[in-house]
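User: two proteins, same treatment. go.

Assistant:
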Amino acid sequence: MSAVKSTAEVIAQFNDAFTKHDPTLIEGLVGEGCVMVTVQPAPDGTRYEGLEACETFWKDLAADPKVSFQPEDVYVFDDRAVIKWRVTFTPGEVNEVFGGAHAESTTVAGVNLMQVRDGRIVEGLGYSKTP
């Protein structure tokens, strides 16, 4: 039996999935009953519930070649983490996750509020700047 990953280890691997465009790194990181809320559509985003729904969403986003994700700051404390990030797009190639509000954008800044329990992500709430 392997040791449970720390919150910092889970969040580092989660970020690597996006920076490396490697959706396989998401596997094993999402917990049962996970709740995830996307950054769009404003004002409330879209809510996903359960391991499969959250994992599928994050894997699809990690694999998207139109999106270049860069964490700017990561703060970890106990079972919580804050990821301050920036996403860059090719002009006119905005990902549907970030929506039509960003159709003329080449970059979006945002944060994710994360909770990890027993080495698995159980909550991921995304917020972004809107033009």
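Protein 2:
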Amino acid sequence: MGISIRAYARHRGVTDTAVHKAIRTGRIAPEADGTIDPDKADLEWARNSEAPKAGTRAKAVKAAVPESAADASGGLPSGGASLLQARTVNEVVKAQTNKVRLARLKGELVDRPQAIAHVFKLARSERDAWLNWPARISAQMAAKLGIEPHAMHVALEAAVREHLQELGEMRPRVD
């Protein structure tokens, strides 16, 4: 058997509305008969509340935690994810989502599949340009060097294909 909600509110130095809200949000749990066990509720209140701002409230929360529980855990007792931890994770996720959304609106982000398709298209056009180059230039080079144009074309095409094969075997990392 614990104390009434109003008595617990006086004990905490808060209004009974604050205690009702703490019960409703799951910050503290009443006993089966509806009363509040002050020691248990103080622990739950400290564990499931936001970090104290400063000063007297910090001392009150620290005083609400028994020394044995504080010594064993190095601070406030932990019982899974506390309300404060859950709120912190939620705020971090919201901030990251907003950061990505803002970067997308500013045009700083690109669609990954679209970027990969664009790079593929550029690489293919580069390869095609190199494959067509021996046919365009071999006759001019053969005339300058005084050799047969067909032999020059075959030699250039073989060299270009070998070089493109080497480039094709390279696997760049995409992080």
